[in-house]
Amino acid sequence: NRRAVGIVGAGPAGLTLGNLLREAGIPCVVLERGTREHVENRPRAGVLEHRAVQMLAAHGLADRLLQEADRHGSCEFRVDGVAHEVDYATLYDGQTHYIYPQQEVVKDLARHYVDERGGDVRWSVSDVELHDVETPEPALSWTNADGARERLECSFIAGADGFHGVARRSIPPGAVQEFSHQHGIEWLSILAEAPPSTHKVIYALHPDGFAGHMLRSSTVSRYYLQVPVDDTVDNWPDERVWTELHKRLALKDSDWRLNEGRIIEKRILDMRSHVVEPMNHGNLYLLGDAAHIITPVGAKGMNLALHDAEVLAAALTSYHRTGDDSGLRSYSEVCLRRVWRAQEFSQWMVFMIHRSPEPFLSRLGQARLEHLIGSRSSAGYFAQNYVGP
Ligand code: RFL
To answer: Ligand 1 test: best mutation among 17, 44, 201, 279, most atoms within 8 Å of CB?
Structure first.
């Protein structure tokens, strides 16, 4: 069957799948709503797990990443101005995180796929429609950048078009089960042109709410502030953001200072989780955010997207080479095991780093954090889930 695999979405999931399919000699076409410039400059996540980097490296996709990414093996919980470090790399086989902004991952994936492997991406498409996904002859149609309608007969369709994409919405109601959870917490996410003030990620617990200092590059940092539910960006002029970050991240009895810089992005993050089960319907396979979203706590979103792409590519390769469809049949189950593990860990961390308005729950969260800081086995659990599994 020389029909192409139709991939909707050129984010980390779609472009990784495209690269792996091209490597295996399987024809594929990627449809992307945005321009190449737009998707290559969209800052989002920035933390890659050890395993994800190994996977990219095994397929020749990590050349620049391995040269430029910073490796991190410890993080800090700053509780009411007192620092507690957790050296998770030592606790988990020396495995580290790689700090490398998502837009750099996407740039590398696009370079390998388009410029080096001759991969086909149709940028700036609109009105993508999925057809006949329940049959062996599914198809995609779309309006191209010149306004003309086009159609592609596919072998399979990969829906890698994010949470608001068209692929999941094309599945008839009732054909899959959707699990959704609002965490009852809201974060203001801030990106600033400020060099990091720390060598490790800081999770700060303060009576006024959580604050986070994340790492992106030597010139850009990401910060999070817990804000009241239903708060808006308009309530957070830059000056207030910095005042609040200084206050919540303050370190007692120390001359540690938070670097400031020009704020380049401010948005309210919807702290919710969503999982679709199963992750396929007929010959449509969902990947990454199209199938599941997770809070940024624990930094799992992009890593899960890469894992899905790896599993689907292996399944499609085996099917194309030998007709063996066992990988396709188990795709959803294999991916969902990791997705639910990540959801559980993220929820475990959310509970631990936010003080609940309910005093009893708040004390439980505190007990969890004290156990993490004071117990090697609890820190081991954290390490395995944070940098692995
Ligand atoms: P992506 O990256 O959203 O890529 C989907 C691609 O599909 C395109 N698309 C369409 N193309 C054609 N037709 C349509 N109808 C289409 N609809 C959408 C989009 O333009 C896009 O190019 O999904 P993918 O590949 O699954 O990757 C997942 C990751 O992007 C995601 O999990 C993380 O970025 C989540 N995330 C964060 N995770 C963290 O761990 N830490 C963070 O700080 C963090 N910040 C974020 C984030 C996600 C965000 N989004 C998606 C709202 C900040 C933001 C703003």
So the answer is: 44
Residues of the chain with pLDDT under 70: 1
**Cα 88 from Cα 90, distance rounded (Å):** 5
Summarised one tens digit per residue, pLDDT across range 311-329 is 999 999 999 999 999 999 9
Q: Where in the chain is the domain with CATH 3.50.50.60?
A: 4-70+97-180+272-348
Residues of the chain with CATH 3.30.9.10: 183-271+357-387
CB of residue 10 inside a 6 A radius of ligand 1: yes
**Fold category of 183-271+357-387 in CATH:** D-Amino Acid Oxidase; Chain A, domain 2 (3.30.9)
Report pLDDT digits (tens) over 116-131: 999 999 999 999 999 9
Q: Is 9 in the pocket of ligand 1 (CB under 6 A)?
A: yes
Ligand 1 atom closest to 163 (CA)? 3
Specify the pLDDT at position 188.
97
> How far apart are the CA of 377 and the centre of ligand 1, in A?
34
pLDDT of residue 388: 84
Residue with the smallest CA separation from ligand 1 atom 35 is 301
Q: Which amino acid is at 373?
A: I
Architecture of domain 4-70+97-180+272-348: 3-Layer(bba) Sandwich (3.50)
- Backbone dihedral region for residue 118 (phi beyond 0: left; psi -120 to 50: alpha; all else: beta): left
Cβ proximity of 306 and 52 under 8 Å: yes
Active site residues: 72, 203, 296, 300, 386
What pLDDT is attached to residue 1?
A: 54
Task: Name the DSSP class of 198.
Answer: -
* Backbone phi, psi, residue 151, to 5°: -145, 145
